[in-house]
Amino acid sequence: MTRDDSDPRETDETTRTDDERSRQTLPDGGAVNDVALDPWGSSTISDYRKLFEEFGIEEFDEVLPDVPNPHYLMRRGVIFGHRDYTPVADAMREGDDFAVLSGFMPTGAPHIGHKLVFDEIIWHQQQGGDAYGLIADLEAHSARGLSWEEIDEHARDYLLSLLALGFDPEEGELYRQSDNRTLQDLSFELGSKANFSEFQGIYGFDGETNVSHMQSVVTQMGDILYPQLEEPKPTVIPVGPDQDPHVRFARDLAARMRFFKVTEAYASFELADVERPIVAAAYEAREAFAEDPETPRCGEAAEWLDEAGRTQVDISALAAGENALSTAVEKLENAGMEPLRPRVRFLDANATDDAFEDLIASIDGEKRRYDEHIDAFDLSVSDAETLAREVELDNGGYGFLPPSSIYHRFMTGLTGGKMSSSIPASHISLLDDPEEGYDKVKSATTGGRETAEKQRELGGKADECPVYELYAYLLSGDDDEFAKRVYDECVGGERLCGGCKEQAAVLMEEFLEDHQEKREEAEAMLDDIDISLESDRRGVAPGDD
């Protein structure tokens, strides 16, 4: 921490900066070395890159060029990852329907870390999305043991801040889990597709976990899919990376609720996902082995793969190696003289008899019917998926699209560790007195050098500085040039910590003053919203699990 002199306070804002440099200015944050994702844990993430490798989270930079008018959190890399965000970006760009939903567990006062999610919901709403904000009161009661009175108090605070920041309740929906019977009915249906072994594997639940906690997880799955109840649409869930297990589980359940699964096939038998690219490669190479390339036979493909495929096809790059090759060859051998011919397959997952018959009648062109699937030879995969969803919706199904997600970095606490509601000095509450917010920033840890002289000589460490995070995540607002200038002056040795903190403290005080004035204005708006602010539930907090 630096004990130094001051910089002149800057108040002028200028033009945009280039996006790439702005993204480079952000710290990785975090304080632990593991990347275990626990929705109810207290760990931050120290190495975000491991999330790409271990959990399949994709880098947001890859989809950023496709996002119209991206939010500054996207431009600066605060939103660093996503799961299947492309359908949402496409819908936004093309003016199609899409939705955004996120929830808040009312365990304490909302703080500036929560503002990231508030902003993400509001921005998507402003881009034309159907917006949903929910109070996860069932989760707060079952997983954190809060009383209903405590939940009521905190829920009001979250809702007021969300409204004050710009959420439009006339164009969006706010609800409490405990009051939404439609949500609970959906959650009940989703629960029929989940099992206890998954709760163990995903969340580490065991024989000591209370049943209400498990029920709250299924309720969260219902929350994630709730925006699609009226019609399927791309839906994004803005969350921190610790919530990714919920998103992955919801995507699995969305698929399990579908009437039909659409796959690519090459014969009457079914291929595993790892076998399909191997057989596809054999079909593409049919000129090399088929007596009649117009009608290659499964047995011919098996022989070619078994003898020549290892050298002519990079099996390891296509699938899971030798085991997948062996099982694919065995299936082809068993099919013998059956023609090897591409087709789209509709697998019966949960379809009613009427839906199955309706699908058969709806397929144009050549088709083959089997006991549990239908093969169509004149449809593309995308057309087949559209048809399957239409038939499902016409026959009372949900037709869910897999929900998408975006992930933002955790804010570092003002004391240098984790930002936590249980450590008052580590965070700034949106309810803090503005002068208290000023004082907390002035007392914050920085990324500065030991002395002003070393700071001027070596430059500051903005990438490790909680105060710089305040500029990048909040205080610079939409002005990328301002955030860049703060960073450049810090690492260049021009900006000293005393003046930098003074400027940040003043901006924070102004933000809190403005936000709390808008919260007061939102009181009347909240009274007009159809959402219960006082629960009539009775109960005691569940035991520790």
From TrEMBL:
UniProt EC number: 6.1.1.2
Comp. bias intervals (Basic and acidic residues): 1-23
GO biological process: tryptophanyl-tRNA aminoacylation
Matches recorded under Pfam families: tRNA-synt_1b
InterPro entries: aa-tRNA-synth_Ic, Rossmann-like_a/b/a_fold, Trp-tRNA-ligase, Tryptophan-tRNA-ligase_arc
Localisation per UniProt entry: Cytoplasm
Keyword tags: Aminoacyl-tRNA synthetase, ATP-binding, Cytoplasm, Ligase, Nucleotide-binding, Protein biosynthesis
Sequence motif: 'HIGH' region, positions: 106-114
Chain residue ranges for the region called Disordered: 1-34
Motif ('KMSKS' region): 418-422
Bilayer-crossing regions: none
Catalytic activity: tRNA(Trp) + L-tryptophan + ATP = L-tryptophyl-tRNA(Trp) + AMP + diphosphate + H(+)
GO terms, molecular function: ATP binding; tryptophan-tRNA ligase activity
Function: Catalyzes the attachment of tryptophan to tRNA(Trp).
Family listed: Belongs to the class-I aminoacyl-tRNA synthetase family.
PANTHER family: TRYPTOPHAN--TRNA LIGASE, TRYPTOPHANYL-TRNA SYNTHETASE
Name of this protein: Tryptophan--tRNA ligase
